[in-house]
Amino acid sequence: MVKKTNKLTKRTQLSKKNKEEIKADVQPISTDLQVNLDNIKEVFTKCSDIVFREFLIGYQAPVKAALIYVDGLTDKVAIHDYILKSLTLEARASKPNIELNLDDIYKWIEESTITVAEKKQVENLDDVMSGFLSGDTALLMDGWSKALVIGTKGWASRGISEPDSEVVIRGPREGFTETVRINTSMIRRRLHSNKLKIEGRKIGTYTQTDVVVLYMDGIVNPKIVKEVHKRLDGINEVDSILETGCIEQYIEDHPYSPFPQIQYTERPDKVVAYLLEGRVIIMVDGSPDCLIAPTVFIQFLQSPEDYYSRILMSTVLRWIRFIGVFTAVTLPALYIAITTFHQEMIPTNLALSISGAREGVPFPALIEALIMEISLELLREASVRLPGAIGSTLGIVGALIVGQAAVEAKLVAPQMVIIVALTAIGSFTVPSFAASIPLRLIRFPLMILGAIFGLYGVMLGWIGILVHMISLKSFGFPYLAPLAPLRISELKDVLIRAPRWQMMTAPQFRKPTEKPPKSFLRKPYVKNLKGAGKND
Amino acid sequence: MIKRGTISPRQVFFILIMLLTGIYILILPRHLVTIVGTDGWLVLLVGGFVSSLMLFFINKISRKFPGKTVVEFAPVVMGLFLGKLLGGILVVYYTFLAAVSLRIFAEMLKSVLLSDTPRWVVVVALVALITWIVQNGLEDIARFTELLAPIILLLLIAAFLGDVRYMEAIRLRPMFQSAALPLLEGFLSSLSYFGIIIVLLMLYPYVNAPKKLTITSLLALAFAVLITIGFFIGAVATFGIYETGRMAWPVIELVKMVRVGEFLERVESLFLSVWLSIAFINVSVLAFCSVSGWTQLINAENYRKLTYPIMLSLLLLSLWPRDLLDVLGLYSLNFTYGFLITLIIPFFIFVVSQFHKGEKNDVSNP
Amino acid sequence: MSATHKKLLLLLFISIIFLSGCWDRKEINQIGFAVGLGIDKDGDNYQIITQMALPSLLEGGGGGDEPPVWVVGGKGRTVFEAIRDVNTRSARRPFWGHLNVIVIGEEVAKDGLIPVIDLLSRGQELRRSNYIVIAQGKARDILEAQPKLESINAIFISQLIENRTGQSVAPAVTINDLLITLSSSGIESVLPRISALEQESFLPPKKEEGGDSPEGEEKPKEILELRGTGIFKNDKLIDWMDEETTRGYLWVRGQVRGGIIVVENPSEPGANISLEIKSNKSKITPRVENGKIAIDINISSTFNLVENAGFVSVESKATMQDLRQRASEAIRKEVNKAIKKAQENKTDILGLGEHVRVQYPGMWREIQWSELFHTVEIRVNTEAVIQEAAMTLKPVTPPSQRSK
C-alpha cells in the first residue's frame, strides 16, 4: 500500500509545484470597494463575459455596492428580482426598527434583504472570484472587508435523457446529465435517507471542477471512503479535470492494465444499487458518467436489468453473456488452433467441408483471421464515429457486402466469416462498453498464440490473462472476486441471479460489522400468504 | 518477505488435490502395473492410509511452530547445522519435483500434441508464466488454483465417466496375485507418490486458519486417493495390464478414447489444455516452495530477486535429461526413495520436537 | 513485481513468438485426409491402399459421377515404409487423424497381424477406437468398391459397422480391442469380415440390361457386406465363421444387440414366427471337477415377437412357454456351433480362458490353455424371455380360418 501511494503522488507531483506558486498570494478584501473592483478587473482583463454592476443601497446614506457575475452562468431572473430589486427598491422601502451602526447595516442587508436561499460570506478575493466563476453572484460593499457569494447558478444544460451507452429494455430511462447537482438530485430523489452522504470538493488548478463523493454512511466500509479521499487528495493539484475518465486514470490501481478497474455508469438506478451495496460513487461536474469504486470484473457482465426482470430469465441472460464473452475472446483463436493443429478434433464431414472451402485461399488461417478481425474493428470504429443512420448502413455494407465479396474472391473461407461475425456479436453482449474493448483486444494475442502452439497456446494465453486478472486490485479489493478468491455465498449473484429475497448476506464491500437490517429479510408475497394461511 | 496468513484452508485443499492428482498421475498407472499388476489400487489405498500418518506429523510439527515454515523451525528444533541440512534437503526436493513435473509435462505434450515443436520453446513459455505468478506470490497462486481446480476436477471426472463404457471388470482380475516384495515396492512407490503433500510444511504459515488444516489436508488426501485409484482402475479396466504397461501415457490414452456424443471425437487436445493448467498450478506451487525455501535458507531479504536465478536453474534442470526414458528413470528414483524424504524427515523432526518446548505462546498467529 | 521485471518477462514472451517458426502448424487445406487404409500383401512386400477424401469434390454437393475419393497405393517391406511410400505420390501429406476404418487383406491376416498392428498402436494421429475389419480377398477390392448412400466408402464401412446391431452377424472390433485380445492370455482375436459383391448377387439381373455393358469391362462393385467373422490363433487368421456361428460367438460374449430368430409356431406346424432379439446377457463360470476344468455358459436373452406368419395366435401361456423353449433351443444351437468351431481350431476366441485365469489363477499358471482348450467340457444353458407381442396380439386371419 505504501508503494501504491508513492505511485499516486508521483503521478501528481508535477502539478503540485504549479499550485504552490499560485497559492502564495491570498488577497484580502479591501474596505475600499473601488480597490477591490480594480483588483478584480485587473485579473479579469479581456474577459468580456464578466459583468460588473455597481449600484447604491439605501438613499439617506447610500452604501456603494457592486455585483459581479459571469454572463451566461447565472440565472438572470434571480439576480434581477431577488438581489438587485431587493437591495435597491425594497431595501429602501423597508425600515429597520433599530438605529443602525455601519456593521449592523451589512448584517441587515445580508440577513434581511436578499431573498435568495443560498449565500455564503467569504473573506478574500480569491474566494470571491472562484465564487462568481462557478456561476454565483458576488456582492461587494464599500467599507466592508467581507463579501457575499449568492447562489444564482443557472445555465443552459442538456435535459435528462436516456443514456445511449447503457440501454435497457426494462428499467428507468433516466440518465445523468453534465450538471453535477442535477445528478446528485437524481440520487437523492431515489434515496431519501439521511445516511446518504454527499461530500464535495474542487479539483483542478485551472478548472476548479466540482467533484462529489457519495456513499451510504453505515453501510459502506469506512476504509474505502478513506482510501477514495486519500487518492483524491493525491490529485488535488492537477491542472484540469474534464471528465471522470481523467480522475479514473489518476486514481486507479493499475493504469497499464487493459482491464478497467473502476466502472462508470450514466444510470442513477445503478448508482443507487451500488451505494446500497456499500460502494463509493465519484461524480464530476461536466460529465454524465460517474465512477464506482471499488469495482470487480464481474460487474461488467451484470446489467441493471438483471435485477428488474424475472429470476430465471436474468440467470439465463447472464449465462448468454458469459458465452458471449468467451466467444469474443477465444473463438477465433480456437478456430485457428483447431484447423491448423488439431484437425482430428473436427468431425470428419465438417473437416472435409472446411478444407474444401479453404481450397484456393492463399493465406494461412492466422492471416485470414487477422484480415477479417481487423476489418471488423475498422468497421466498428467507423460506425461509432458516424451519425446513427449512416452508421448502421455502414455496418450492413461492411458485414454483408464486403464479407460476401471476400468469400467470393477466395480471400477468406466462409467459415471464417461466420467465426468473425460470432466474435462481433459475442462482444456486443457485454453490457459495459469499457469492458468490451479490452476483451476485444485480448483476442489478437490469443490468436497469435493459437497459431504458434495450437490449443496449448490458447490455454497459455488464458492462463496469462487469469494470472494478470488475479493480480489486479481495485481499491484494495481483488478484481476477480468473488471467483478468486472464491466466496461461495456471493456466487449467487454471479453464476445465477438469485431471487431478491435470497440476496441478503452482506457483499464484501460493506462495513465488516454491518448486518443487513431487519427490513432486508424479505420474502416473496406468496410465501407470506402461505404463512398467514397456516396461522388461521 | 511475503505476507503470511493470507490464504484460506479451502485454497490449500485445492492446491493439495492438484498436487496429488496432478502431473505424476500421468506415469503412475504404468509404473504400478509393471510392479504389482492389477493390485495397484490396493497399494494406492494402503499408501494413502499411511500417508495420512505423514500428514499427522506434518500437522503436529507445523502447529507447534505457528507462523514458521519448516526451513525456519528446523534449525530451532534440530540445531543450526542439522536443521539447515534437513531444510536444504527439502528445498532441493521441491526444486527437483518442480523440474521433473515441468519436464514430464513437456514430454507428454511433445509426444501427444506438438511433436515438432522444440521442447525448450514449450518449457520456456510455461516457465515465463510461472515466474510471473511466483513473483506475484502465493496468494495469487492460491486464487488461481481455487478458480480452476473445481473445473479441472469436473473435467477429470467427466473423462473418467466418458471411458466407463470401454471398461470391463474382468481386466481388473485376478486380484491379490502379487508377491510380497513387489507389493512392498509398489507400496513404497505410492507412498512416495503421495509424499508430494510435504509441500504443506512450506504452506502452513501462509494459511489464515491453521486449525482447520488437519481436516482439510486429510480430506484432500482422501479425495486424491480416490481420483488416483479411479484413474488406475480406469486405465487397467480399459486396456488390461499388458497394454497399460506398454503405454507411455496411459491416462492420456484413456482420455483419447473419450467421445462427446457421436460427433466430437479426439477431445484429448482439450484435455491436454486441462493438463496444462494442472502443470501450471503444480509447478507454480512447487517453485514457490522452492523459492521461498531458498530465501529462508540463506536468510535473504528479497524473495522476488531470488525468483529469477531459481526459475532459470529450474528451467535448465528440466531441460537437462536427454529423453523421456531418462526422465522416467530419474523419477523412478523418487518412486523408490522419495518416501525417505517425505516420511522420514517429518517423523524425525516430530520426534525431536517432542523434547522441545515449542513456540505456541510467544508467536501470535495472524 | 516491479515494472522493469514485468517488461523483461514480456520481452521474453514476445521473443518466443518471433523466434518461433510455428513448427507443428499444418493448414487444413494442405493435408490429405486419409479416411480409409487397406493393407495387402504383394509377395514379400506390403501393399498399402490409402483412400483420401477430395474436399473440393465434396464441396460441390457430390455432383458428377466421380466419387470424391482418391485411392493411392504404396509399397514397402514394412507397413511404415509402405505408408511413407504413399507420401512420395501425394502432394498433400496424408493425415491419419480422420481414418475411419482399417481393412486388412486376407493374405496379410494369414501371415500374422503383429507386424501390422504395432504401427497402428503407436501412431500419434491414429485413434485407438478405429474400426478394423478383414477383407475377404484383397483389401483393395473393398476400398475401390463404390457403394451408394455415402460418397466416401470408408465412411460407408464404418457406418456399416456401427449399424451392425440390426442383424448381429459380425462383431465390431476396434484397434484397442484387437490389441487387448492379442496381448491377453486366455482370449484369442476375431475380426469382422467384409466382402465386396456384385449387385446381381442379391437382385437377379434384369434381362434386357445384360446386353448394355460390354463384356470384360470391370465395373466397380456396388455392394459391401459385413457378414461373418475371421478367427485367429495368436495373430494369424486360420478360419472363418459364417453368420450363424458368429452370432453363436456373440451370444457367448454377450454382444448380441439385435437380429431375428425364426422359429416354428408350436401350435401350427409349418408356420414361422420371427422373434427380434432385444437383449443378451452371458455368464461364464469355470469349475474344476476332479482336477478337470469344465465351463458353464449361461445365456439369457429377451425377445420381441414381431411377426407371425401363420394363422394361429400364440397368446396362450402354454404356447408361449413352448415358444420360449424353441427360442432358447435355437440359441443353444448357434452357440454350440461357435464352440465347436473354436474347439476344432483350438483357438479360444470365446475368452473362456480369461475366466479360468481370473477364477483359478494358481491353476492357470500350471496349465497350457491353448493345448487344453479343445478338450474342455463346455455346458451351455440358455434361457429366453418373450416380452411383448409387438402392436397386435393376433395374426391376420381370413374369415374362413376363424374358429366360430
End-to-end distance of chain B: 15 Å
CATH topology of chain B: Amino acid/polyamine transporter I
CATH superfamily of chain B: Amino acid/polyamine transporter I
Strand content of chain C: 25-35%
Write structural notes for this entry:
Chain A is built from 18 helices and twelve strands. With 536 residues, chain A is an alpha+beta fold. In chain A, strands 1-2-4-5-3 form a five-stranded antiparallel sheet, sandwiched between helices. Chain A has a five-stranded antiparallel sheet with strand order 6-7-9-10-8, sandwiched between helices. The two termini of chain A are 60 Å apart. Chain B is mostly helical and 366 residues long. Chain B has 14 helices and no strands. Chain C has two domains: 27-201 and 220-241, no CATH class; 254-404, GMP Synthetase, Chain A, domain 3. In chain C, the strands form two sheets. In chain C, strands 1, 2, 3, 4, 5, 6, 7, 8 and 9 form a nine-stranded mixed sheet that branches. Chain C starts with a helix and ends in an 18-residue tail after the last strand.
Features of this protein?
heterotrimer, B: 366 residues, mainly alpha, Amino acid/polyamine transporter I, 14 helices, disordered C terminus, C: 404 residues, alpha/beta, GMP Synthetase, Chain A, domain 3, 9-stranded mixed β-sheet, 29% strand, globular
List the helices and strands and how they pair.
The complex is a heterotrimer of chains A (536), B (366) and C (404).
Chain A: H1 2-23, H2 33-43, E1 50-57, E2 63-70, H3 76-93, H4 102-113, E3 119-122, H5 125-133, E4 137-141, E5 147-150, H6 180-190, E6 196-203, E7 209-216, H7 222-234, H8 244-251, E8 263-265, H9 268-276, E9 280-284, E10 290-293, H10 304-308, H11 311-340, H12 348-358, H13 365-385, H14 388-408, H15 414-428, H16 433-453, H17 455-471, E11 473-474, E12 477-478, H18 525-535
Antiparallel strand pairs in A: 1-2, 2-4, 3-5, 4-5, 6-7, 7-9, 8-10, 9-10, 11-12
Chain B: H1 9-21, H2 28-36, H3 40-64, H4 70-78, H5 80-112, H6 119-136, H7 138-163, H8 180-194, H9 200-203, H10 213-246, H11 250-256, H12 268-297, H13 303-319, H14 324-353
Helix pairs in contact in B: 1-7, 1-10, 2-8, 2-10, 3-8, 3-10, 3-14, 4-5, 5-12, 5-13, 5-14, 6-12, 6-13, 7-12, 8-14, 10-11, 12-13
Chain C: H1 3-19, E1 31-42, E2 45-53, H2 55-59, E3 69-76, H3 79-87, E4 93-95, E5 101-104, H4 106-111, H5 114-122, E6 131-135, H6 139-144, H7 153-162, H8 175-183, E7 190-197, E8 223-233, E9 236-241, H9 243-253, E10 260-264, E11 272-289, E12 292-308, H10 317-345, H11 352-359, H12 361-366, H13 369-372, E13 377-386
Parallel strand pairs in C: 1-4, 1-5, 5-6, 6-7, 12-13
Antiparallel strand pairs in C: 1-2, 2-3, 7-8, 8-9, 10-11, 11-12
Helix pairs in contact in C: 9-10
